[in-house]
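Example record

The entry below shows one chain as it appears in the dataset: sequence first, then structure tokens.
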Amino acid sequence: MNLRGEDIVEKSCIKSDTLIVDQCGHDGYREYEKDGRKIRIYSVNDTGLTKSRNYAIKKSTADICLLCDDDEVFVDNYEEGILTAYKDIPEADVMIFDIGNQKTIHRDKPTKLGYFDLMHVASWQISFRRKSLIENDVYFDERMGAGSGNGAEEELKFLTDCRKKGLAIYFVPFVIADVAQTKSTWFKGYDEQFFINRGNTTRYIMGYVPALLYAVYYSVRKRHQFNRDISWFKAFRLILKGMHENRLGKN
């Protein structure tokens, strides 16, 4: 949002073609080339993280795409490693890669991911064959994510939608980047609204019964991270409140 002065391409050590969506209150476009890579920047009069991602998917012309947040720093050979992985696993539609300082999936060889594995994936890890998404009409749900007012979990919704459409999702233990510990645009701590949003999004993605079971697991498993005034039981009740509120739709 409001990209000014600082060159995000250089800051993130990006050495491949790049498409940037800058949500800045007006529409515009510019492009330039640097060191053999093409940089395209779309300025848009819109807000919302998932809207930005969908816009980028539609404007891209690449075969293989990689999501990138503005706090990533890429390793030197990330492009070669990603393209090699897709060449080695030609049936893969979506690939999840490792982040050096934010390891989420502990596998030492390429593995096809199941449903529960997807719960541990962050957006910075996701790459995909753009053609697979377009042909199957899979995009990010614009009712979720930063700027939507409904909390996060948009990555899980996106990946579960990919699975429902029969797309093959693989994890490859190749480190593509590190992620800086910057302040989140949406996470304000484990306050009451966080858990209410969690109930809404998990019911929307999973359905009522699986979301209920997940609420028990999450409340107990993550209890040591919660704010001091929120016990695991209070967190569970707040998640239930969000599930029953169900503002994202019946499921």
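Notes for this example: The two ends are 33 Å apart (CA to CA). The chain is about 35% helix and 20% strand.
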